[in-house]
Structure formats: structure tokens, C-alpha cells
Amino acid sequence: MGSLQEQQHALLVDKICEIYHKISQLETLKPSKNVDTLFTQLVLTCIPPSSIIISNLPNKVQEIRSKLIRLCGEAEGHLEAHFSTLLASFSNPLHHLDIFPYYSNYLKLSRIEFDILDQHYSAGTGPPKRVAFVGSGPLPLTSIVLASYHLKETTFHNYDIDPSANSMACRLVSADSDLSQRMIFHTSDILDVSDELKEYDVVFLAALVGMDVDEKVRVVQHLAKYMAPGAVLMVRSAHGARAFLYPVVDPKELQGFEVLSVFHPDDDVINSVVIARKHLITTRVDHHHHLETGSIMPYSCKYCEFQMFNNPLNKVSMIEDLAIDE
User: Fold this and answer.
1) What GO molecular function annotation could you give as one example from this UniProt entry (predicted)?
2) Of 17, 46, 172, 250, which sits 20 to 30 A from 7 (CA to CA)?
3) How far, CA to CA in Å, does 108 sit from each of 141, 146, 149, 183, 192?
4) Contact between residue 273 and residue 95 where contact means Cβ atoms under 8 Å apart
5) Based on C-alpha coordinates, what's the Rg of the chain?
6) Separation of alpha carbons 307 and 303, rounded Å
7) Residues 226, 312 within the same domain
């Protein structure tokens, strides 16, 4: 006989799976009364704080979750394209953003992200000058809200793989004399962007860039390779039952970064926020001693850390880096 908590988790999973089956039978995920109703039901089911641990669920449920995240991503893309087109019919689209049903959610999430960034971004240098947003989509609300209310001097470089998403997004800001100068759109797969990434003080990674763990890790590894040392990475994740809507980013997966803070909201803001800083030193460390002792290389090896920070060559390179920075 399972505990009350286990019974609650089982009921929650059953309800989510039932909604998934209805969504998976829809002919299209473009906005309509039926589509909107089902996704609203799904979101309302997943939002209440839950102690459910996604990794403990059976494989069958894990498969449904993976498919559901992709369906949510597709539906979100259609919803954003629909409202981006609608907004573009106004002479100044940015004055009418509140017609988007989740606009207030973006206002709250952007405020959270700005506050977290403000706490951890190096105070001496002032606000970030150049920010990249990876996976900006046809309705780049995070960039728009941050640029309009929080980072009023910052230039935002928005990356999306879809040229039509970028042309829609571009139309929204073109009538605004300020944002049209500070928001730049790049059509490219982020895995094909290398040296440009060194130019950004902060990189935001949208929740749906990398729909599963392997894809997400590949993107994070690429960012770790090319971002500037000390630059900040803001990653959106999910917690509890909200992980049926968006991929989860385990802080342990952010190799090459120091995780500074993880924030899990408990209101109607769905995404968790992870902030990390790219390591200042990227040194190849020899892990052969693990093979000698027969131990498996752990996530953090104290011996290797000792070697890294007590290697005189590293101290020289740190001094050189400081001299270059000055």
C-alpha cells in the first residue's frame, strides 16, 4: 500500500497522461478553442508545487514526458507566431503586448531574471553591455521586457534557427526608435556560432533550446567552449510537475561553469532559473591518477583542483589574464 504522497503522484501522472493522449490526437497545434483548452488544463495541472521526482518515474512515463515537451514546444511556437502576426497589424506593436495571454508571466519572469542577474553580475562594471538570447522565437518577449524596463542601455542579440521567426520578431521592434537600435536578430543554429559568443557579457538560454538532456548538454558544452571567461549564463529549467512542460537542467550538467544560484518559483511563473558563470581558467587537467587508483572520475576531483590551482603555469596565465583585462 503506497503512502498518501505516492497516491497523489500517481493521480497527477494519470491526469497528465490523459491530457497528453488528447493533445497527441489533435490534427493541428495551432491556436483554437480545443487546443487552448487542453494546454490550459495541462498547465493548471502541472503548476501546483509538487515533490514528484521526474527521474524516478517509469520509462513509459518518461517517454510520454519527452513527447509532451516537444508538443508543448510546437504549440508554443504556433501561439507566439499567431500573436506576433496579430501585434504586427498595430502601428506600434510594443504598445499592445498585453494582448498576449501570458504577457504578465513574462513580466514576472523577466523581473526575477533581472534581480538574480543584478545580484551576481560584477557590480564594478555596471550593467551588461551586450546580451545574447538563444532561442528568441517570433515573439521575443524576454528581450523586449528586459530592454524596455531593466537593461535600458544594453544591446540584445537574439538568435533563432528559424528565419521566419526572426522576420516576425524584427517587425515588432522596427517601429520603436530605441529598441530597433538595440535589438539585433541573427538567423543561425547556435552550434554554428563560435567567436561571436566571446563578445557577450550574458547569454540567456531559452527553455526549449535542447528539448532533451543530450541536446541541452551539447548546447551548454558549446557555450562553455566559446563564451568569454567570467561571462554569465542564464538557463531556464523546470522543477516538480512543471518538468512535464519544459526540460530540466541539472546544475551538474553545466560543466565549465560555476553555478551561482538556482531559483524555483512557486507561483504561476513556470520556469526555474539557473545562473552560472563561465570558469575563469579553462585548463586541461590530467586525470590519469584515477586510472592508477582504479577510481571512477567524480564530478569534482579535489586532487585535480589542487593540481590546477597549485600549478605555477596557471598562476602565470591568471596574472596575464588580469593584465589583459586591466
Assistant:
1) nicotianamine synthase activity
2) 250
3) 11, 11, 12, 21, 32
4) no
5) 22
6) 6
7) no
Give the tens place of pLDDT for each residue, 166-182.
Answer: 999 999 999 999 999 99
25 vs 287 pLDDT, higher one: 25
144: Cβ contacts below 8 Å, ≥ 6 apart: 94, 97, 172, 173, 179, 183
Question: What does the block give as the cell for 324?
Answer: 589583459
| Cα 282 to Cα 237, 257, 317, distances in angstroms | 25, 10, 10
- Taking only the tens place, the pLDDT of each residue in 107-123 is 999 999 999 999 888 65
Provide the terminal-to-terminal Cα distance of the chain, rounded to the nearest Å: 65
Total domains, the chain: 2
Strand partners, 262: 274
Position 253 pLDDT exceeds 80:
yes
Give the model confidence (pLDDT) of 2-60 as tens digits: 688 889 999 999 999 999 999 999 999 999 999 999 999 999 999 998 999 988 999 99
